[in-house]
Specification:
21 helices, alpha/beta, about 55% helix, 3-stranded mixed sheet, Rossmann fold, Helicase, Ruva Protein, domain 3, 6-stranded parallel sheet, Zinc Finger, Delta Prime, domain 3, about 10% strand, 3 domains
Length: about 450
C-alpha cells in the first residue's frame, strides 16, 4: 500500500485495513503512543487483541498470525519487529542492554534481554551458546572489552528462546502479506524503532501493508516536553523546567538525541532524584548547532536571559542554521547578516501586528492552535492588500510558510506596534555601529535587550 506520516486520519477501519500495519519512528515513546491509537481505532466490539512481548515464543506468535480467532470475528496481533528488521548498531545494543540491567526490576530485565537478543542476532552469535564466550566475543567486536563480565551476567539469565526464532516470524508475516491488499480477519499491528532502509521485510510490508511513520513535526518542543514529563513521572524523577529547556537547546530538539540524553539523565538521577539545569550542562555535551529561530522565539517570549545566551551561541564558532538552511559565517560579514535577519523578523512582526489589529478583538491570540490559525487568520493575512494587489507576506520567492507566519504572529502578540516600529527604526543605527568596528556581540546584545525591554 504505502508509507505515510502518522495521523488519526491515516488509520483505516478494520474492514479496509491491509494484513499488516507497521508504526515506525526514531523514538519508542512516540511509536508506542501511535500504536495505541491504531489499536484503539481498529479494535471493535468483536475484536480479539493479542499482544506479544519480545520474549514470546516465535511459534505462538506465528500461530496467532496465521490462524483465525475461535472467539471473535476479528483479531489484532501486536508485536515489535525491531529485532527482525535490525535497528541499532551492536555497540549501542550493548549500552542499552547494560542500561536496562542497571535499572533492575522486571521492566529493566525485559529491556536488557530484548537488547541482548538483538545483539546476538546482529553479531550472528548463537543464542544457545556459552554466555561467557558470547559476551567476550561481542565485547571484543564492539570494542567494549570492559563490559564483557556484566554482559555475561545478562546472557546467563537470558531466558531460552523457543524453537523457530526470527525465521519463523518472518515466514509467518510474509504468508500473511501474501493474502492480498485487504485483511482476512487478522491484522498484524507491528512496531519498529528506527528501522533501516533497504531491509527486504520492511520493503514487503511497505508494498503490501501500511507503514505509518511517527515524527514530532516542525515544532518539536511540545511533543518532547510531553515525552520528558511522562518518562520523568514514570521514573519518579523531578525535572526542572529550566533543565528541560536546556536539554532542548543542547540537543537541537532532535527527537532521537533528546530521548537518548533524557534517558541518561533520568538514569543518572535515579528514583526520587532531581535534574536541574546545571545537571544538564554537566552531563550533556553541547555540540549542537544553533537555530536562529531559537533566538526569534526567545525574543517573542521577551525572555532576555535566553535571548542573550542564544546570541552568544551564534558567535561562539558552532554551526548556525535557520531551519534547514546552514550559514557560512564569514567573520566580517556575519554580525551584519545576523542583524539583517533580526531586523527582518522585527519587520515581519510589525506587519503582522498591524494586520492582526485591523481585524479587531476576537481575531488572533497567542494561545490559538495552528489549525485554527490556518482556518481563521491565514486567509486574511494572504489576501491582497491595496494598492499593491498582493499580500505583504508574498515576496520574490513566493508566499511565506504558514507555520512561520503562525510563529511570528505569536511573537508579535507580546509587543505593541509602537515597540516594534521603534526597534525597526533603531536597526539602521545598529548597522552603522557594526560597520564602524563596534564590538559585534555587545552591539547586538544591546539592540536585542532594548527590543525585549520595549525601550
Amino acid at each position: 500500500m504505502a508509507k505515510i506520516p502518522f495521523s488519526e486520519k491515516a488509520i483505516p477501519r478494520f474492514a479496509d485495513a491491509p494484513p499488516a500495519v507497521l508504526v515506525s519512528g526514531d523514538v519508542e515513546f512516540f511509536v508506542e503512543e501511535a500504536a495505541t491509537r491504531v489499536r484503539e481505532a481498529l479494535a471493535g466490539k468483536d475484536t480479539e487483541v493479542l499482544r506479544f512481548e519480545d520474549d514470546a515464543p516465535s511459534e505462538a506468535v506465528s500461530d496467532a498470525l496465521l490462524n483465525r480467532s475461535l472467539f471473535a470475528a476479528h483479531r489484532i496481533v501486536e508485536l515489535d519487529i525491531s529485532r527482525l528488521l535490525g535497528t541499532e548498531s551492536p555497540g549501542r545494543l550493548v549500552t542499552k542492554a547494560l542500561d536496562g540491567w542497571a535499572k533492575g526490576g522486571a521492566g529493566g530485565r525485559r529491556e536488557a534481554f530484548k537488547h541482548a537478543r538483538a545483539l546476538l542476532a546482529a553479531l550472528d552469535l548463537p543464542a544457545g551458546g556459552d554466555p561467557t564466550e558470547n559476551a567476550e566475543a561481542a565485547a571484543r567486536r564492539v570494542r567494549k572489552k570492559d563490559d564483557a563480565p556484566l554482559l555475561a551476567e545478562i546472557l546467563k539469565e537470558l531466558p531460552e528462546e523457543k524453537s523457530g526464532g526470527p525465521a519463523v516470524l518472518k515466514a509467518a508475516l510474509r504468508t500473511l502479506l501474501e493474502g492480498g491488499e485487504k485483511n482476512d480477519g487478522i491484522v498484524a499491528l507491528l512496531t519498529a524503532i528506527a528501522p533501516p532502509a533497504g531491509v527486504d521485510l520492511l520493503q514487503e510490508i511497505t508494498a503490501r501493508g501500511l507503514v505509518l511513520e511517527t515524527s514530532v513535526g516542525d515544532d518539536a518542543g511540545p511533543a518532547l516536553r510531553r515525552l520528558a514529563g511522562a518518562l520523568a513521572k514514570e521514573r519518579e524523577v523531578s525535572l526542572d523546567p529550566g533543565a528541560l529547556e536546556r536539554l532542548l537547546t543542547r540537543t537541537n530538539a532532535d527527537a532521537a538525541t533528546f530521548a537518548a540524553e533524557l534517558e541518561k539523565l533520568l538514569g543518572w538521577a535515579g528514583k526520587g532524584g532531581h535534574v536541574r539545569a546545571a545537571d544538564v550542562e554537566a552531563n550533556v555535551e553541547d555540540e549542537a548547532s544553533e537555530d536562529v529561530y531559537g533566538l526569534f522565539d526567545a525574543i517573542g517570549r521577551r525572555d532576555a536571559g535566553d535571548a542573550l545566551a542564544r546570541l552568544e551561541r551564534l558567535f561562539d564558532g558552532r554551526e548556525v542554521r535557520q531551519g534547514d538552511r546552514a550559514f557560512e559565517k564569514i567573520e566580517d560579514i556575519w554580525p551584519i547578516q545576523l542583524l539583517g535577519m533580526i531586523a527582518g523578523e522585527v519587520r515581519r512582526m510589525l506587519l503582522l501586528r498591524a494586520r492582526l489589529e485591523e481585524a479587531g478583538p476576537g481575531g488572533f491570540d497567542a494561545g490559538m492552535s495552528y489549525p485554527a490559525f490556518q482556518a481563521r487568520v491565514l486567509p486574511r493575512l494572504m489576501a491582497p492588500a491595496a494598492p499593491f494587489g498582493h499580500s505583504p507576506f508574498e515576496g520574490g520567492k513566493g508566499a511565506a510558510h504558514p507555520f512561520a507566519l503562525y510563529k511570528a504572529s505569536q511573537r508579535s502578540s507580546r509587543f505593541t506596534a509602537r515597540e516594534l516600529a521603534r526597534a525597526l527604526s533603531r536597526a539602521a543605527d545598529v548597522d552603522v555601529r557594526l560597520k564602524s568596528s563596534g564590538p559585534p556581540l555587545e552591539t547586538l546584545s544591546g539592540y536585542v535587550g532594548e527590543l525585549i525591554a520595549g525601550i
